[in-house]
Design goal:
The complex is a heterodimer of chains A (326) and B (250).
Chain A lengths: L1 H29 L7 H31 L2 H4 L6 H38 L12 H20 L2 H27 L3 E6 L5 E4 L13 E4 L8 E9 L7 H7 L22 H14 L3 E8 L4 H29 L1
Antiparallel strand pairs in A: 1-5, 2-3, 4-5
Helix pairs in contact in A: 1-4, 2-4, 2-5, 2-6, 4-5, 4-9, 5-6, 5-9
Chain B lengths: L6 E12 L2 E12 L3 E5 L6 H9 L6 E6 L7 H7 E4 L11 H11 L5 H11 L12 H13 L5 E4 L8 H18 L2 E6 L2 H5 L4 E6 L2 E7 H12 L5 H10 L6
Parallel strand pairs in B: 3-7, 3-8, 5-6, 6-7
Antiparallel strand pairs in B: 1-2, 1-4, 8-9
Helix pairs in contact in B: 4-5, 5-6
The chains are: A mainly alpha (326), B alpha/beta (250).
């Protein structure tokens, strides 16, 4: 069954191997590290590779058998269809992990000096090292399951893409910040670097009240997951407190002490009003930061890999269950 | 040969429902081994459903079916005892003829590589040709080769000649007949044309509107009809006559 899987899969594997070899040659010889545009583009490549593998390797795997009717040929050989599915999942899954791992390896190696200079390793967290291997395993099995359920290649590819992006975003914004206890840090409010405005979260601007917005301190290689303004009891700064302490601040909307508030430079009077306000608020309130320190980078990479590999195993089991039911 | 092997297909209360429609209902059959069975009936009568049940591609909604004493599709050994050629003879269009033979060799422990190679040579197929570029007749012959060379005890063929021209049709049926005499293989072959079956079949099952209307040895069926009515009929007349009746004739 493994030999047969390879017989069918080798064309796709050859294409992938060629593409990765091309990337490695380009990275080694052609792309200069002072080419500023290359780093984000290579990052995007690592980011989309798992999704592409899920769409083009995962989704057609079972869906095409149904579309072409060849499942009637495949499942009447002397191999149970459970074994057929298990071997296909294993070979395709390992190949996807290898492909994504190699792409990540090349990019991580190429961008290494730039990443070290940028001192912001969490900004490229899902484009480097081992996390992409987990994404690829997940995307591939997701594609296979979508194909087994929908039985049509194009809709299965589309569903794979949508679900993959949704899961990745949910994990990134909700789960990942909660995986490890963050380091907590209290800082006095700095009138020189605190602005006034709204937004800053995934909520649309219209749904959030304007408040003071401190400019987070420069902590190299960390991931700041939350910045709040709280008093000694840990209570957050409310609009009511802000308005009573600084009457009229809402009218001077758009001012920014640290240049955060807007693109046009605010009049000096507005800036002064805001700085006075921040100083007054700062007597009872401070800035509470939560961040993942640099030492959490590798533990989080391993967690990320384990979570997506675990999800891939669950999806793989679902594929086997679906195929066995016929 | 033990007792169970003497029965090629045993179905009891067999039924298959797709959503709300019964594709096959209350099917009771006992077909002895060693026969060449023609499964005939109009389109949509449930022929493909019965054959998919026999090949283990689907599990029945109600009742049971046994093939050569075993549950269809139950493990590699049972799968190896049945060769299946599906309707429209599906093959992997991107895979070469040689690739298909290699596939079947990898997947079937009882694979007869010599037999497969000889057949491909006799048919004049180019082993390097991609299966997607074969003619309908060549594709059907490739699919038949894959099913025959795994050396099954039972060969199931679902409308294998429906899309073939008369010449390819006769060639194909001759290949099937050759396998029967050469290896003692039992065959179940479906068609909506009686003329296809008459050439090689000795046992008939007639399906009409998801039910078995007629089943038995063809010679015996014709003799019984002659006894009942007093004049001889052709198989075609017998089938057409039974199809228009409402009762169950056995």
């Amino acid at each position: 069954m493994i030999r047969f899987t390879w017989l069918q899969f080798r064309a796709q594997a050859t294409v992938a191997a060629g593409a990765i070899a091309l990337l490695a040659v380009a990275a080694a010889g052609l792309l200069h590290r002072d080419d500023a545009a290359a780093r984000p583009w290579l990052g995007v490549l690592v980011l989309v590779a798992p999704g592409l593998l899920g769409m083009f390797w995962g989704a057609p795997l079972v869906a095409r058998e149904f579309e072409d009717g060849t499942f009637r040929l495949a499942w009447t050989q002397s191999v149970t269809r459970t074994r057929w599915m298990a071997v296909k999942l294993a070979v395709g899954g390992l190949a996807s992990m290898t492909a994504a791992g190699l792409v990540s390896l090349v990019v991580t190696w190429w961008a290494g000096p730039l990443d070290r200079a940028a001192l912001n390793q969490f900004a490229t967290f899902d484009q480097r090292d081992i996390a992409p291997i987990g994404y690829a395993a997940f995307a591939f099995t997701l594609g296979v399951l979508a194909g087994a359920l929908i039985r049509r290649t194009l809709p299965a590819m589309f569903v794979t893409l949508v679900v993959f992006i949704t899961v990745r975003l949910a994990e990134l914004t909700w789960l990942r910040p909660r995986l490890l206890h963050p380091v907590l840090l209290n800082l006095a409010l700095n009138p020189g670097s605190t602005g006034y405005g709204q937004g800053g979260s995934l909520l649309p601007v219209a749904f959030s009240n304007p408040t003071l917005m401190p400019n987070p301190p420069d902590l190299p290689n960390t991931w700041i997951t939350s910045t709040r303004i709280v008093n000694a009891h840990g209570e957050g700064l409310t609009t009511g407190v802000l308005d009573s302490t600084c009457p009229g601040i809402n009218r001077g909307r758009g001012g920014g002490g640290g240049g955060l508030g807007g693109h046009t430079k605010a009049p000096q009077a507005v800036v002064n009003t805001l700085q006075d306000c921040v100083a007054k608020i700062g007597t009872t309130y401070h800035q509470a930061l939560a961040y993942q320190p640099a030492s959490h980078y590798w533990p989080l990479q391993w967690y990320e890999l384990a979570i997506f590999l675990g999800a891939a195993l669950i999806l793989g089991a679902a594929c086997l269950w679906r195929i066995r039911r016929g | 040969m033990n007792d169970s092997i003497k029965t090629l297909l045993a179905a009891s209360g067999l039924g298959q429902r797709y959503r709300r429609r019964w594709a096959l209902s209350d099917c009771n059959l006992e077909i002895p081994a060693g026969r060449v069975v023609g499964l005939v009936g109009p389109n949509g009568a449930g022929k493909t459903t019965l054959l998919h049940l026999a090949a283990g591609l689907i599990a029945p909604t109600t009742g049971t079916v046994e093939i050569l004493g075993g549950r269809p599709g139950d493990g590699p050994a049972q799968l190896g005892r049945v060769g299946f050629v599906a309707q429209d003879t599906p093959v992997y269009s991107g895979l070469s003829v040689r690739g298909h033979l290699r596939m079947a060799e990898y997947l079937n422990p009882g694979w007869d590589a010599g037999l497969a190679r000889r057949r491909i040579e006799q048919l004049g197929l180019d082993p390097g040709q991609r299966a997607g570029r074969l003619s309908g007749g060549q594709r059907a012959q490739l699919a038949l080769t894959l099913a025959i060379a795994k050396r099954p005890e039972l060969l199931i063929l679902d409308e294998p000649v429906a899309s073939l021209d008369p010449l390819a049709r006769r060639e194909f049926l001759r290949s099937v007949a050759g396998t029967v005499t050469g290896h003692g293989t039992s065959v179940v072959l479906s068609s909506h044309l009686v003329a296809d079956l008459e050439l090689i079949c000795d046992y008939l099952v007639l399906l009409v509107a998801s039910r078995v209307r007629l089943a038995g040895d063809i010679t015996a069926l014709l003799a019984a009809h002659r006894q009942r009515t007093g004049h001889p009929v052709t198989l075609d007349d017998l089938v057409v006559g039974s199809m228009s009746q409402t009762g169950d004739v056995r």
